[in-house]
Amino acid sequence: MTNAETLAPPAGSPTAPHRWSPVLAVSLATFTVVSSEMMPVGLLTPMSHSLRVTDGVTGLSLTVTGLIAAVLSPFAPLLVGLRDRRTVLVAFMLLLGLADAVTAMAPNFAVLAAGRVLLGAAMGIVWGLAASLGPRLADGPRIALAMTLIFSGVSIASVLGVPLGTYLAALLDWRAAFWALALLGAASAAVLAATLPALPVPERGRLGGLAGALRHRGVAAGTAITAFVVLGHFAGYTYVRPVLEADAGLGSGAIAACLLVYGLAGVAGNFTLGPLSGRRPKTAVTLALTGVTLAAALLTYATGVVAVLLVLVVWGASYGGVSVSTQTWVRIADPARIEASAAVWAGVFNASIALGSFAGGLVVDRAGTHAVLLTAAALAAPGLLLTLLSRPHDGGPSGRSGR
């Protein structure tokens, strides 16, 4: 175990309990990352038509991004070595902006996929480092709020990023949405450079830190729970636009409104389950997984706009708390290896996005929208069962109680 993996910041590195601008800057970065990653969800149909491929193939743009991010995230601390985390985050947010620009210019799916590969590389490093920054940017009593704010970027991306991109695409075209994201990536890099303190590490991360995190039963349970719920969520939510078009008969404007309601519920879920996870992580994770599982199953049978909106509110509020609650589970489980366990968690999260969207694409192309939602619920359900049978404070390999 190295000092770079400990909960406390390295000696001499600053925390900022009284300055929230660095925390909000990281929140803007997570907002930009997730908006870039998820934008195809709101633009799936126009992108498919423009690129002359099926919805399932267009959904692979999420799979490509998730796979690259999944490969890089666990190794982010090792790959960046002793480089100041502030410098690394700024550089990779600039890369994210470039990736969105390539996507905006793509004449075919192959070029779009190349842009999404670049996006996956940027995501992998940003997520692999940002998930562990809460304890370095705030002191003990404020860590839970700092983590909630950092991960609020995820749910706010659903409120503002995807719906605004959908509206912009309706006004202009889908490429305009990605050009806007390219500019936002550059702006986010500038904000990080202006507000983040220096974030040095005294020692290089090691593979032993990753292995040690995975051997801890609480961390292993938390990452497995994360895998199941994210698999299920993205198997269904990636294809929510075709679902709302085919099953609910909604037009593009109504779909954008539904995604806005979903996103607002996500923000509420983040700021409700985030603080709760700091006190009772198992309860927060249980609520999140119950809601995602039930909503995915119920959307199959929802008829009418009101019923659809109610189900999306439950889904949004539940998934809005998934990131912060599962990451808090992992952090609390093994606080001695916070950067390593956060990197593992980020890798599992992104791999599950990739596999979930891929599995959903196979199902929706072969069996339709009803089947894809039932598949989503079936994938998330084992995560809920594991949550009920586990706890974050389970000990390491010997089964002794956690720290």
Question: What does this molecule look like?
Answer:
It is a single chain. With 403 residues, the protein is mainly α. It has one domain (19-389): Growth Hormone, Chain: A, CATH 1.20.1250. The chain contains 17 helices and no strands. The longest helix has 31 residues, at 21-51. The two termini are 15 Å apart. The model is unreliable at 1-18 and 397-403 (pLDDT under 50).
Task: Give the overall form.
Answer: globular
Please count the beta strands (DSSP E, at least 2 residues each).
0
| Overall pLDDT level | 82
Poorly predicted tracts of residues: 1-18, 397-403
Q: Largest sheet, described in full?
A: none
Count of helical stretches:
17
The proportion of residues in beta strands is: under 5%
Order of H and E elements: HHHHHHHHHHHHHHHHH
What topology does this entry show?
Layout: H1 21-51, H2 55-72, H3 76-80, H4 85-105, H5 109-130, H6 134-137, H7 143-171, H8 174-195, H9 207-215, H10 217-237, H11 240-246, H12 252-279, H13 281-299, H14 305-320, H15 322-333, H16 338-367, H17 369-389
Helix pairs in contact: 1-2, 1-5, 1-7, 1-8, 2-5, 2-16, 4-5, 4-8, 5-16, 7-8, 7-12, 9-16, 10-13, 10-15, 10-16, 10-17, 12-13, 12-14, 12-15, 13-14, 13-15, 13-17, 16-17
